[in-house]
Amino acid sequence: MHKPFKSYSVQWMIGNTALADPMVNARYVTDDLYWVQHPIPTQVGKGYFTSIHLASGVSLHHSRLQFQATHAWVEPLRAVVRMDMKEPSLLVTSVQVGGLTRYDYLRPVEHYVAPDSTLVQWSDRSHAALKFDASPVVEALYMRASQSSLEQLMGPEIADLLRMHTETSTSILHLPRSVTAPLAYCFDYQLRRPLHKLHAQTKALAFLEGLVRFFENKGHGQPVKKECRARATLELIQQQTSNFPSVTDLASKLGLSVKTLNQSFIKAYGMSVAQFLREHRLALAHQMLLDTRQSVSEIACLLGFSQLSHFSASFKAFFGYSPSALRIERESALQVRQS
After folding, report:
1. Which of 59, 144, 167, 176 is most enclosed, with most CB atoms within 10 A?
2. E strands of the chain, at which residues?
3. What pLDDT digit, counting tens, does each position of 17-55 carry?
4. pTM score
5. Around 308, how many Cα atoms within 13 Å sit in the side-chain half-sphere?
């Protein structure tokens, strides 16, 4: 099986105190690692990661950190990561929950990566410091795919397209959910490990396909008028926190047919207006569950979900956990902070 690394090391830091685990660093280059504990003091929190190497030459890493409520008052947790790859590779950083600040020592440049953003780069090495938000949970996914692997999977022409768009990239991409969703569901721990790796590979390839389509559309460009239509639609939706308009209402307000509106929106954002409306409502629900004391059923009703069961199922499919689980985690964090 293809192993992408020459060398790898991560040094965890709290202030000037190092928390490195050299045995894990050595195994990371060659082994699949499942639910390995991060070397984090219990008074700060706990964390685990899974790292797998796929037959396609793609490497995936899933990390979840859960902090004590008092973590906001101690020095921030950082991880200094060094990677030397055997060849130039596509490097993807995606945050599912919480956020992190990534300082790149090689460029140098700093990025903030949150659930609505993805960092995509092309390089044969990486040296960066990751500083994690003092939020209850930070969950992140990382992908690495070597140039030769991408050429075998997609052909040299498409691999060159990815390289062209990411080789000099120093900015965050706001990828449509339709592109990032497969990456978010790469890790299904309920599956047996051989099947888990097959599932992860399928999702990783779906993400790569979506990324290629995103760059192809971006490269081809589109008339300014269509961009304005899509942007106007986006802004109309984002202004709403309840009483959401239907797609037909939006099209009428902009003087367009539903078909024309959807075509321009898909061209700009990679998803239909209806899909974006749904994801916007779910994102609002997530924020309300954290910031308000309204019940789950009240939030569902306010955001236009007629059935609580439908809301809960949609929420869990999108975020990977139920609304009630998020609310329980929030209440537990508040109790710890008040004690």
Report:
1. 59
2. 5-14, 17-18, 33-37, 45-53, 58-67, 77-97, 100-104, 109-113, 118-132, 137-146
3. 887 666 677 788 788 889 888 888 887 888 899 999 988
4. 0.64
5. 7
